[in-house]
Structures are given as C-alpha cells and as structure tokens.
Amino acid sequence: xxxxxxxxxxxxxxxxxxxxxxxxxxxxxxxxxxxxxxxxxxxxxxxxxxxxxxxxxxxxxxxxxxxxxxxxxxxxxxxxxxxxxxxxxxxxxxxxxxxxxxxxxxxxxxxxxxxxxxxxxxxxxxxxxxxxxxxxxxxxxxxxxxxxxxxxxxxxxxxxxxxxxxxxxxxxxxxxxxxxxxxxxxxxxxxxxxxxxxxxxxxxxxxxxxxxxxxxxxxxxxxxxxxxxxxxxxxxxxxxxxxxxxxxxxxxxxxxxxxxxxxxxxxxxxxxxxxxxxxxxxxxxxxxxxxxxxxxxxxxxxxx
Length: 304
Ligand code: 5GP
Prior knowledge:
This protein is an alpha/beta fold. Helices cover 53% and strands 13% of the residues. It has a five-stranded parallel β-sheet, with helices on both faces. A hairpin with a 3-residue loop joins strand 5 and strand 6 (189-194). Helix 6 (127-137) packs across helix 12. The longest helix has 26 residues, at 5-30. The radius of gyration is 23 Å and the shape is elongated. Mean pLDDT is 87; it is low at 106-114 and 296-304. Bound molecules: guanosine-5'-monophosphate. Guanosine-5'-monophosphate binds at residues 123, 127, 146, 150, 181, 183, 185, 191-193, 211-213, 215-216.
C-alpha cells in the first residue's frame, strides 16, 4: 500500500534534512571542531539524536588522517559491520569503539599528527635510493635511522645508514621498549625503528619517513593508524631481478632468498594507501614527498 502523497513528500523532506544534519556533523569532525568521541557519546546518550543515525564507518571516515582502507581495517578489528549505525552497536562494540577513539583520536584531533610516511616495497626496488634522495634533497623530512644486527656494507656509515648493533644491544633495545617496530628480515638479521627520534620530530611538526620492510609496515599501521603507507613498485618484475643482480652486493644464495621475499612482498601491495612506481628516482622521491605535503596541508586546514 502506498502512503498518501503528502506523507511521502514530508518523509523525503525529513530524510534530506537528516542527511544534511549528518553531513554537518561529519564536516565538524573533519575540521576538528568536534571530536569523534563526543559524537559517539551523544549518539549513545540519545537514540533520537542525529548522531545515533550515523553509520560508524562514516564517522571514522570523517576523522582527519583516516582513509577508507584504514577505516575498513579498524572496523574489522573492532568487529563492527560496515553498515552498522551508532545506535545499533552492541555493548561490546560500543566499548571497543570508545576505546579506539579515546586512544587514537586525541593525537589526530589535538595535534594533527599524520605526517608519518612508511615507504615499503620489495627488495632492490630502490627504497634505499629513493629515501637517500629524499634525505639529501628535502632536509625538512626526517629519515628515520634503523638499528640492525647485520654487518655494514662497504661505504655504509654507522649512525647514518643504520645503527649497527650486536644481538645483545638489539635485545636490550627491545626490552627497553625503544622500538616502534622491529622484524627479522630475509630470515636473517634483525632491523628495528627507534621510536624516540620519531616522536620528537612529529612533536616539532616535521614529516618523518620510515624505509622498512612489509612486516614493519604492518606493525606501524597497527601502532599508528594515521601513518600513510606507500608501496614502491618496480616498473616490472624483470627490472627488479635486473636491479638485484646488477647491485652485486649479495651472494647467489642471498639473491635467491631476497627474490623469494620480493615475490611475497609484491603480493601485499593492495594493503597500502598509495603505490609509487620507481622508474626514475627523482620523480618517485617527489611523489613520496608530495604525499607528505598533501597530509601537511590537510593538517593545517584542520587547525584553522
Ligand atoms: P638492507 O639489508 O638491504 O639494508 O635492508 C633489508 C631490508 O630491511 C629492506 O627491505 C629494508 O626496508 C628493511 N629494513 C630496514 N630498516 C628496517 C627497520 O627498521 N624495520 C624493518 N621492519 N625493516 C627494515
């Protein structure tokens, strides 16, 4: 049975008004005039509120620095279906969402910290060359120096290329909680990102670039969902093999091990927020830095 014409018109007007009101709330969150946490509080306090009718996904998407890929990951982790509205959350889902917003939102809302960029990609794709280019040409960007248990290669400088440490020192750093992330790479040596310099740089409003492997990128995503994950791709698989062999710094056995890792790593590219093809070092570096600039611009806009 169709409702009378006048009711349908009134209902559609009300729906349009509700959509507009929800859009205004989302805009306020996005422009940092309102915290996502307070939207949740309002929604839970009153099932009649406009906030109660918002989808959880839309609320998370309106938080500066959280894009669709990260939002979907967060929702999976919180075990909340993508169509769920704030009013429809179960008690445990409410708690998980509140905990997430309490932990994550303050850094996004208060400081606009979203300038951490992780550059990952398969072995020999040129991550090192691109990040060295950025360090030399974009001094405003802090390139994080990792600690590693592997031996220095010729020309590598302690404290610049890596902090070269022994197993005992690496163990101590883990124990002391000094790493943002760490991993065993190529089934061999341990590599880790020291956290204090990153926190300091972000607090000063600087951009930070981490050049790490896939396992490390995943850990950073968990610890700091506002980080931007960039995957560096070779122009082709053949080119990747050519670069690895051409580099001539690894034994045949080591090359084989690294190619195996590279195949696995290439398969993970969809987990990343952005993909950059490294055909030309200067252009790839500019593209990565541009991603930081976009983030910075967003951060500044949000503070106005
Ligand atoms: P290499 O031995 O060729 O310098 O680096 C081997 C791999 O370790 C590269 O894929 C590099 O991105 C990764 N790597 C370097 N530093 C770190 C780090 O701090 N953490 C993680 N997880 N990987 C790292």
